Amino acid sequence: MTWTVYLSGEIHSDWREQIRQGCADADLDVYFTAPVTDHSASDDAGDVLGAEDKPFWKDHKSASINAIRIQRSIQEADLVIVRFGDKYKQWNAAFDAGYAAALGIPYITLHGADIVHALKEVDAGAQAWAESPAQIVEILHYLIDQN
pTM for this structure? Predict the structure, then answer.
């Protein structure tokens, strides 16, 4: 059985690639999906609908278009990994965790110990909290290859 895993959250490091490579190295049958990780492309997704003078409306259009891909990917996932990084606050990642929880799709949070307090409610709904991509790979290995 192929597992579909949605990789949500922070886009400024290579954590997705570390998980993909770790799963490939372990020969795990995983299909990964993710949001658009090109920041400019994501921010400008709504420009096709016309220019906006106010940043709110530009962001609103782009967020709405991006939500099509994100919601569909979460709905089709067996598991969602939600990464919270150090550089920016990923409010969208918290929303993705809540969406997964509302749909009954399990999720795992991935973040450092320094933001445990800020994410206590998000972590409380998660099936696990990991601090490294390697831990995510170990969890996937257990879930997929354990008989």
Answer: 0.94
